[in-house]
Amino acid sequence: MISNERVIEILKEAGVLLEGHFRLTSGRHSNKYLQCAKIFRNTKYSEELCAALAEQFGSEGVEVVIGPAMGAVQMAYEVSRHLKCENFFAEREADGKMALRRGFEVKPGMKVLLVEDVVTTGGSVKEVLELVKAAGADVVGIGSIVDRTGGKIDFGVPFKAVISVEVESWEPENCPLCKEGKLELVKPGSRKV
């Protein structure tokens, strides 16, 4: 089991934790942002963190690991490598809905692990969860490297993270950084809000 100290060390070394004035995918504002995509630019970071996550689901008989594109494509691969199973990803179609494409298919009863690099509201994961459940698969759990919910999210299946990190955020109208007007608002994530 990896220690929180080691995880924080990796996140700092990888340049994951950013400080400034950020608009999150949820629309809320924050003075910190976790750019977890940076974990996957070097296998020395992703291998250790994804192995720690895979270890938490190792006894579940996972047959496939699925992550929402784009953020969890590499993560699904790395976690599946440690679990010695298949992996693929869900992606948005032209209508904006998540779908399994490219010949990726889950079958009824298949044991599926869903992964996401960071969970804040769980929106993308919930979409993939519904998609996979509708196909009749058995979702054994959801795993993330970083849980930003403070353990407050309930997906209806086990949710495990390598680390839980609390990052303060505000509705735009209550943002102290906007009121100060000193820092430019930046949207660093993959989705346009």
UniProtKB/TrEMBL annotation:
InterPro entries: OPRT, Orotate_PRibTrfase_bac, PRTase-like, PRTase_dom. This is Orotate phosphoribosyltransferase. One of its GO terms (biological process) is 'de novo' UMP biosynthetic process. One of its GO terms (molecular function) is orotate phosphoribosyltransferase activity. Pathway: Pyrimidine metabolism; UMP biosynthesis via de novo pathway; UMP from orotate: step 1/2. Orotate binds at T120, R148. 5-phospho-alpha-D-ribose 1-diphosphate binds at E116, D117, V118, V119, T120, T121, G122, G123, S124. SUPFAM superfamilies: PRTase-like. Transmembrane segments: none annotated. Catalyzes the transfer of a ribosyl phosphate group from 5-phosphoribose 1-diphosphate to orotate, leading to the formation of orotidine monophosphate (OMP). PANTHER family: OROTATE PHOSPHORIBOSYLTRANSFERASE (PTHR19278), URIDINE 5'-MONOPHOSPHATE SYNTHASE (PTHR19278:SF9). It catalyses: orotidine 5'-phosphate + diphosphate = orotate + 5-phospho-alpha-D-ribose 1-diphosphate. The keyword Transferase applies. Keywords: Glycosyltransferase, Magnesium, Pyrimidine biosynthesis, Transferase. Its cofactor is Mg(2+). Belongs to the purine/pyrimidine phosphoribosyltransferase family. PyrE subfamily. Residues 49-154 form the Phosphoribosyltransferase domain. The lineage of its organism: Bacteria, Bacillati, Bacillota, Clostridia, Eubacteriales. It comes from Candidatus Limousia pullorum. Its EC number is 2.4.2.10. Homodimer.
